[in-house]
Amino acid sequence: MSAKVWHGVLVILACATLAIFAYVFWIAPMQGEDYAFARRFVDAGLQPRLDWMLHKWPIQFTQWNARLGEQLAIFWLNLPKSLFLLATVACFVGMNVLCAFMLGGVTAGSAGR
Fold first, then answer.
1. How far apart are CA 90 and CA 49, in angstroms?
2. Where is average pLDDT lowest: 3-7, 9-13, 25-29, 33-37?
3. What residue spans define the domains of the chain?
């Protein structure tokens, strides 16, 4: 097969992988201690969410567990799920691009081709 065909196959595979990744993160239910960090905001805007997070972070940090993961869980579980999905997909793509650069598969001059 020619290089052009392989390139097309890899692009299709990359898009399929990204779609599966996004779907899994979209349907993933909360687990375990996620329930302690989330608050049900029905129609609340950003300000009430941030106020609650700023109240919850110091309590969680000083009285229970100071790990960064819990602080991030409080943040992401209390924002709209679509923002979390965008952030995870962006990080997934960024990680893969970084790996490609590190492995030498992509160079600065060929990244746009």
1. 23
2. 33-37
3. 3-103
**Prediction pTM value:** 0.60
- Three-state secondary structure call for residue 73: helix
> Could you tell me if 25 and 84 are in contact, meaning their C-beta atoms sit under 8 angstroms apart?
yes
Asked if 70 and 60 touch (Cβ cutoff 8 Å), the reply is: yes
Q: Which of 101, 14, 102 is nearest to 110 (CA)?
A: 101
Q: Does residue 6 have a pLDDT over 80?
A: yes
Mean pLDDT confidence for 1-24: 86
Cα–Cα distance measured from residue 106 to residue 94, given in angstroms and rounded to the nearest whole number: 13
Residue 74: burial class (beta carbons within 10 Å; 0-12, 13-18, 19+)? buried
Q: How many CA atoms lie within 13 A of 21 on its CB side?
A: 17
- String of b and e for 30-62 (b: at least 16 CB within 10 Å)? eeeeeeebeeeeeeeeeeebeeebeebeeebee
